[in-house]
Design goal:
This protein has about 270 residues and is an alpha/beta fold. About 25% of the residues lie in helices and about 10% in strands. It comes from Pseudovirgaria hyperparasitica.
Length: about 270
């Protein structure tokens, strides 16, 4: 997880050793609401809980699931990422999806990201599916790993072939994975909706945890990925001042997002169970 999220200013710490449950009653879940009766959730709403199971019953071909950000904050017991064990790196894993990147996709949802593609209707080319301007419009998911970048919405540019929030095979996800504005969205959603729930104990763990300095030095010389705090660089045709999601305006200039990442690392590193 850190390998995939660190380049975007997001850092994870393991707060406790994983717990293992053996038996058929723990081997599968029918939905996100099914697991609380079986497994005790740990930590505040700021803590990422992950449950790995053999099967996801009654969920079609899904390989993982995270509840949408917002609804689960009120129902904290359902605030979990459920991942099929077959998606983890293993010689007997699910074909094309055993690189561990399904978990990255689902954690993206935990941070508030939506799919980069629309509903499967070509008319979706007129609507921004994820409300983020630096992910090209795409009316359907990309499957497999095409040799050439498809472009379902011609005027918007090539599809999001190498984006974690698409449906491509794991082997196709070897680039940046998240766009710059997806990273801004994740950090913003963490700051606004999860960081405020950190308990005193969790803050103490973050402050004193040995993993913090292992991940990144905490001093004034720290170099973060992306533009410097004083940078005014902006890719052409992207409106950073008017990003929105469900009516929420994102007005923070691009030059501020790197400084925001430093604050996250210093005071809001994610507590992971």
């Amino acid at each position: 997880m850190n390998e995939r999220f660190n380049p975007h200013g997001i850092y994870f710490l393991l707060a406790s050793m994983p717990q293992y449950y053996v038996g058929t009653s723990y081997a599968s879940v029918a939905s996100a609401q099914d697991w609380p009766a079986k497994i005790e959730r740990k930590g505040s709403e700021a803590a990422l809980n992950m449950l790995f199971v053999r099967e996801l019953e009654h969920m079609g071909t899904a390989y993982g699931a995270c509840m949408p950000l917002g609804s689960q904050i009120a129902d904290r017991l359902a605030d979990i990422c459920i991942i099929k064990t077959g998606t983890l790196p293993h010689k007997d894993g699910i074909v094309n999806y055993s690189g561990g990147l399904i978990a990255v996709h689902e954690i993206g949802h935990w941070f508030g990201l939506l799919h980069v593609f629309g509903t499967g209707d070509p008319s979706s080319c007129t609507r921004d599916a994820d409300f983020i301007s630096d992910t090209p419009l795409q009316w359907a998911a990309t499957r497999g790993c095409p040799d050439k970048e498809p472009s379902l919405c011609k005027k918007s540019g090539p599809d999001n072939l190498h984006n974690y929030m698409n449906y491509v095979d794991d082997r196709c996800l070897q680039g940046e994975g998240f766009t710059e504005l997806q990273a801004v969205r994740m950090r913003r959603m963490w700051k606004n909706y999860r960081k405020t729930h950190l308990t005193a104990e969790e803050k103490g763990f973050i402050k004193n945890g040995q993993g913090v300095t292992d991940l990144m030095p905490m001093d004034s010389t720290t170099t973060l990925p992306g533009p410097s705090p004083n940078s005014t660089e902006r890719p052409e045709s992207h409106d950073y001042e008017h990003e929105h999601m469900n009516g929420e305006s994102l007005t923070e200039p691009l030059r501020e997002h790197t400084l925001s990442a430093l604050l996250l690392v210093a005071a809001g590193v994610f507590v992971v169970f």
